[in-house]
Write a structure and sequence with these properties.
Length: about 200
């Protein structure tokens, strides 16, 4: 039975709290941890050559581009590093498009990648199709300008115990190899800055 639908992502560790911003533990965010090798891709257009640094991460589907800032790419070319991106998914819960770079990942956390975690508002739950949707909204003082929705897969046992649509949730999980689908493995209730008082 489907519940009715009601999406910079920013990592709370990245967001310094100052006046006009929400508390870190109440911020919306979505983070995807990825590990791979830094590669240089050159594209020739007319008489010019354009260079793009990116992360080559095994198991991600074609069409997902993991860009890196030039300085980081030059420093770590052909080396293995971990990077945090802002994920986006299609309606089937698969990663899509060019993902926004957030920051370099601490090497002690690499063993968890590919891994995602997020805090957002539950927008829809569909146990029959085995997925849910979570809306990530802009935070006061943050860089994200428009909300976005992520579609995530989850086991039926998890979908059946989720709170009502509209509730704040914290979710974490993994990236399914080759398909690039995000699969929720754990959830807990959360508090968000725009919750009713």
């Amino acid at each position: 039975m489907e519940r009715v639908s009601l999406a910079a992502s920013q990592d709370p560790a990245e967001t310094p709290q100052s006046e006009g911003q929400c508390p870190r533990d109440q911020a919306y965010y979505a983070s995807l941890w990825s590990v791979g090798h830094v590669r240089l891709r050159e594209v020739k257009k007319k008489d010019k050559v354009f260079s793009f640094y990116h992360l080559e991460a095994p198991g991600y589907p074609r069409g997902v581009f993991l860009p890196l800032p030039r300085g980081l790419g030059q420093t770590f070319l052909n080396q293995r590093i971990g990077v945090v991106y802002a994920p986006r998914t299609d309606e089937q819960g698969a990663l899509k498009g060019r993902l926004d770079y957030l920051r370099r990942l601490d090497p002690t956390l690499w063993e968890r990648a590919p891994y995602f975690h997020l805090r957002g508002r539950l927008a829809a739950v569909n146990p029959e199709e085995g997925h849910l949707q979570v809306e990530v909204r802009p935070n006061p003082g943050g860089k994200l300008r428009a909300p976005f929705t992520l579609t995530l897969l989850a086991p039926l046992s998890l979908l059946e115990v989720l709170p009502p649509v509209g509730s704040a949730v914290y979710l974490e999980g993994e990236v399914r190899p080759r398909s690039g689908r995000l699969v929720v493995r754990r959830w807990e209730p959360a508090r968000l800055w725009d919750d009713p008082q």
